[in-house]
Design a protein that fits this description.
mainly alpha
Amino acid sequence: MVFLHSMIIHESVPILSALQRFYGIGPNVASRICAKLTLYRSAKLGELSQKQLTQVQQELSKLTIENDLHKSIVDNIRRLRDMGTYRGRRHAMGLPHRKAQKMWILPLVGYVGIICGFTFLTLAIASGLYYLSELVEEHTVVSRRILARLIQGIVGIHVLLLVVDRFPFLLTLFSAASHGVYAMNLRRFPMVALTDGWFIGSCILVVSNHILWFRHFSKPPEPLYNYSAPSSAYNRHKQTYGSSLDYKPVPSFSEISAFFGLCVWLVPFALFVSLSAGENVLPSTMGGDSSAGVVGSGDGDGKKKGRKGLFKGGIDGIWDWILETGQALGITGGGRRRSTF
């Protein structure tokens, strides 16, 4: 048990939770105290040295908390009642004492602004994707080279993170192998077969990469030393810093966002843009290298089929499936529908 500012608290309670047990201290004040004294927020009271506990005690003595805060609030309410103010009368009658002044027009303006901003942002992203797809369609060879160099650079970043920043080996290896699978989609770039095994595997790896790295960065920080097995490093650390734990550095939100944007999402997003490169470039299905223009045998016109866009091919495929299902159930008549696109 630890005696802290007229309160006895168990040793296993984290310092952040222990500070919030005092009346008048919330999460923000407790976090500021921990930051000022360079205490990790999840460190337990039993792990703090006597010097650190004394510093916490001194910080608490500077604040108006517990009985002093109760007395100050009661005195303020009594003063308001004696003065006959609106808040004092409301306190005396036990009614809400803060007059809530609602605003109607400004919140509506805010909602309209949010909707307009989201709409413009969506249109801007769509326009940017369309422009990028046009660039990919016009400069296919250059785009393929850029994507290949991009994959190589990201794999190099993973290696540096593994060697320098001690990232997990298996997870880094899995991410690098995933980018190797992404690179296999560049064989017939920008032609992409939706039924290709490499493409399906890439879609699965994108989701798996995101989940695994998200779980990795969501883990609580680990101590620098293994305190369950004392060693010379542990003894030196204890002699220098006392019994308080020292944790590995935790990456900031901006660093995590940059990692996800560059090393997890960038290449799949670029491949997605190439998938939407243009209706005149990407066929919907590819059975081989010559599937973009084969001689039609079922329609009997003897002409080559034009390249069909991804969207058009998807709509035609869905509509043909509906007609075939209806024909099998006896709802629609026989014959296949001619494409309206």
